[in-house]
Design brief:
The complex is a heterodimer. Chain A is 24% helix and 25% strand. By secondary structure, chain A is an alpha+beta fold. In chain A, the strands form 3 sheets. A 7-stranded antiparallel sheet of chain A has the order 1-10-9-4-3-2-5. In chain A, strands 11-17-16-15-14-13-12 form a 7-stranded antiparallel sheet. In chain A, strands 6-7-8 form a 3-stranded antiparallel sheet, with no helix packed on it. In chain A, strand 15 and strand 16 form a beta hairpin. In chain A, helix 2 crosses helix 8. Chain A is globular and about 80 Å long. Chain B contains 5 helices and 1 strand. In chain B, helix 4 runs antiparallel to helix 5. Chain B is globular. Classes of the chains: A alpha+beta, B mainly alpha. The interface between A and B is large, with 45 and 37 residues. Strand 11 of chain A pairs antiparallel with strand 1 of chain B, so a sheet runs across the interface.
């Protein structure tokens, strides 16, 4: 299948359209260095806005979940209060530091519903707004002011139903300002209607940035995923060209375009796809979501396929023209490991046929994500050998270049600030 | 023995006890513990019946499927699961997936 040659910017390439990126070889030392990982903790994960869930995860007053952000050493409770506001708190009892919300195992993420949080250790209780409500044998304490001993708040804000937290003492930017014009141009997309969710998790043996890299370029697709089309129509030398790339601050986007998979000759589809009219790119028919914001297709490409937004630092949001979206999050757990979370979100099925369409999309997604995930342990191990230190990226990989550049810039900013503090 | 599937799908009844599984985790494990001849036999018998099966399910509201119809929908989900092995990879395990795992931890039912 030959893709149309999508026009490039006036500079001749996407990469040169962003001159600060350069065109030289890059190092992936940032993905194997323990020292750099320590810097990412402070410079990125304790400073950036981090998406930890959706408002549908706390649908009613008193519903809560916990999020372990291992790289930042943080455990966070997200809860919907009596006033319907979503808040976040450090998951730490003010009395003796016990983890507050947990069941069965204090190190694992949990969710539930309650009227108050009760500490398992000595029974202190907190209201849903974090206020300390009850102290067992309060008269045994010395100068304890309950009004000054509520749960330690974490900055929390919601954008289009996505709950973000910020672990900085005082965030440098508000959430909307951080997201910037390209991401906030998605305002009005009906995320709140796409509530039928297939959630996946995996622990992966690679640095968090390497998995993100695999999803922000399509150059690898014909080589790593030849099975995406049946063997009879595979072209061993067929490449893949994306229609549009865009960088905005620390964030990125890439759009694919071209004929819809299901409009191709049936030879390009597997029997299960023909039988269910769903598959690699999701259900063939799109639900009527009404008018969409133009921001879903920032390059205005036609026929539009997918736009993959990488919201710094660690999430990707893939909006499909067929009316559903994918969300990935990469949570670092060590320099060479991370926890991957993936969600497919659809408008809830009204019929078995629609449910099967969603199931098929979810099954196909897993197969090809497993190929990416399976390869990355090898990438990490190979990079760690240090045998090769410079790597060439092509114009289709401009977003990989941008991502590592931005990570480096944030770390440099942090280094500069902290070195200025030393007399 | 009581049939699991609606009588119209008696031809698929031999596969029902094995493949009427509620969750993706169960279907995945069953695929991994099956031989390719078993996967091919099920796939080749069930794929031509897929459209009829889905239409049969759609005679009922999705949130009120009678037990035999719910089993039928679970069987359809299992066809999707084995199709990946039979049509795409030629083996039960995803080609080149090494030691990677991906657990589906939340899904709509049925």
């Amino acid at each position: 299948m030959t893709m149309a040659p999508w026009p490039k910017p006036a500079e001749g390439t996407w990469t040169e359209h962003y001159p600060e990126l350069g065109t030289g070889p890059v190092s992936f030392e940032d993905s194997v260095s323990p020292e750099f990982y320590d810097l990412e903790r402070e410079a990125i994960f304790k400073r950036a806005w981090l998406n930890v869930g959706r408002v549908e995860d706390v649908p009613k007053v008193g519903r809560w979940f916990t999020k372990e952000i291992q790289i930042a050493g943080a455990s966070v409770i997200v809860v919907r209060g009596k006033d319907e506001q979503v808040r976040a708190f450090h998951n730490v009892c003010r009395h003796r530091g016990n983890r507050l919300a947990w069941t069965d195992h204090p190190g694992e993420e949990r969710s539930g519903v309650c009227r108050q949080f009760t500490c398992k250790y000595h029974g202190w209780r907190y209201d849903l707004d974090g206020a300390l409500a009850f102290v067992q044998q309060e008269d045994e304490f010395f100068d304890l002011d309950k009004s000054q001993n509520g749960l330690e708040p974490v900055h929390c804000d919601v954008w289009n139903g996505f709950i973000f937290i910020n672990l900085d003492r005082e965030p440098r930017q508000g959430l909307r300002e951080f997201l910037g014009p390209m991401i906030t141009a998605l305002d009005g997309y009906p995320f709140d209607r796409l509530t039928e969710r297939y959630d996946f998790v995996a622990d992966n043996n690679s640095n968090w940035k390497l998995f993100a890299d695999a999803f922000q370029e399509y150059y690898h697709v014909p080589s790593l995923h030849p099975q995406q089309v049946p063997i009879a129509v595979r072209d061993p030398e067929g490449g893949f060209t994306c229609a549009h790339f865009q960088c905005d601050g620390p964030h990125r986007a890439v759009s694919t375009a071209g004929p819809r998979r299901w409009t191709l000759d049936p030879a390009y589809m597997y029997p299960i796809e023909l039988a269910t009219r769903s598959g690699l790119v999701g259900p063939w028919r799109a639900p009527d979501l009404g008018p969409l914001p133009s921001g879903v297709n920032p390059g205005g490409v036609e026929p539009w396929g997918i736009t993959n937004f990488q919201i710094f630092p660690n999430i990707e949001l893939l909006i499909y023209s067929s009316g559903w979206y994918l969300l990935y999050r990469y949570w670092p757990t060590s320099v060479g490991t991370h926890r991957f979370e993936g969600t497919l979100a659809f408008q809830p099925a009204c019929s078995a046929r629609e449910r099967v369409e969603h199931e098929v999309a979810s099954v196909v997604f897993k197969e090809f994500a497993l190929q990416d995930a399976g390869m990355l342990g090898g990438t990490q191990a190979a990079l760690e050998t240090g045998a090769v230190r410079e790597f060439h990226l092509n114009d289709q990989e401009v977003l990989v270049r941008h991502f590592h550049k931005v990570v480096g810039d944030w770390v440099d900013d942090y280094r500069l600030e902290t070195s200025e503090l030393v007399p | 023995v009581t049939a699991l599937l609606p009588t119209e799908f008696a031809d698929l009844e031999p596969f029902a006890a094995t493949w009427c599984l509620a969750t993706e985790a169960e279907r995945w494990d069953r695929r991994m513990s099956s031989t390719m001849p078993e996967l091919v036999e099920f796939h080749d018998a069930a794929l031509p019946r897929l459209d009829a099966a889905i239409e049969h399910c759609d005679r009922h509201p999705l949130d009120a499927l009678p037990p035999d119809v719910e089993h039928l929908l679970q069987l359809v989900h299992s066809v999707a699961m084995v199709a990946m092995a039979v049509e795409i990879f030629g083996q039960a395990k995803t080609v080149d997936s090494a030691d990677a795992v991906l657990h589906r931890v939340k899904e709509p039912l049925p």
